[in-house]
Write a structure and sequence with these properties.
This protein is mainly alpha-helical. It contains three helices and two strands, in the order E-H-H-E-H. Strands 1-2 form a two-stranded parallel sheet. The relative contact order is 0.18. The mean pLDDT is 89.
Length: 94
């Protein structure tokens, strides 16, 4: 991912309990199925990042910004990313 300096690398995280609750609600799934969906998504993401970027998916040093959405709405997280992107484009943030 470091080979793409003009991009903003963002990692969104949340405690597993919150992720399960969100997946259950959004996809109308039972708890065990939601956990399986999360595990499948995480495995796919981990493999993709490893394959194409030779990087650790959950290693925060690979990202410009890590946001814990455990206590933030999606809108708040998006606003943070959008604001950070404006700094990245303008080269304000070192």
């Amino acid at each position: 991912m470091k080979d793409y300096p003009g991009t903003l690398h963002v990692l969104l995280v949340a405690p597993i309990e919150i992720r399960v609750k969100r997946v259950m609600q959004d996809l109308k799934l039972k708890e065990e199925v939601a956990k399986q969906e999360i595990a499948s998504f995480d495995k796919s993401s981990r493999n993709c990042i490893k394959r194409y970027f030779q990087a650790g998916w959950e290693d925060p040093v690979n990202y410009n910004l890590v946001i814990n959405t455990g206590h933030l709405s999606y809108q708040a997280a998006a606003s943070i990313v959008f604001e950070t992107l404006s700094y990245k484009k303008e080269g304000k943030g070192g």
